[in-house]
Amino acid sequence: MSQQNVEIVRRLYEAWRRDGYGAVPELMDPEIEFVNPAYAVEPGTRHGYDGFAAAARSLGSVFSPYQVLDVEFFDAGDQVAVRARVATQSVATEVPVEAERGYVFDFRDGRVVRFAWFSDPIEALRAVGLADVEHPDPKIVCDRCGCASEASTDAQAEGVGWLVDRSRDPHGHICPGCRAAAAPAGRLPDSLR
Ligand SMILES: [Zn+2]
Q1: Is the CB of residue 82 less than 8 Å from the CB of residue 31?
Q2: Ligand 1 centre distance from Cα of residue 184 (Å)
Q3: C-alpha 168 – ligand 1 centre gap (Å)
Q4: Is residue 134 domain-resident?
Q5: Domain ranges, residue 170
């Protein structure tokens, strides 16, 4: 079940990357909570799709929309923790910021029912009981099909036939199966060589 939850979070990030940060009703429970940490400029919890959208807009008024550079998912049963490297800039100062953030997604009946963000990923891991995992192995995941490699580094992934190219895509991981599917009959386009 929980791997399904990771897949839903992955789809949520895809939707945000495509459509911008906000409520995604098909993946979120109507009673979703948006939980700001106590140290947020606007702390407290917002409720429902409208509350989520308002909280997302409010963050956007302080920082220009995040560009997610890299993201890791941590399966914790009914919860999924996320560590993301993001690029953004302060609207006030126009100073670019590259930072790590942590997020926790709670699930009910296959939909996100609670979303909490933290300025430090360790807070998110702690919140789901994974704090003891100081340096959890990042799983390498295929950008096309979502399958995970046993490899935990780019070099290991390349060793087992994965395409790794972060210069084109911040994730930049394509599994051997998807490489083959993208170019049957042995004719790899240059972009997949
Ligand atoms: Zn794949």
Answers
A1: no
A2: 14
A3: 17
A4: no
A5: 140-192
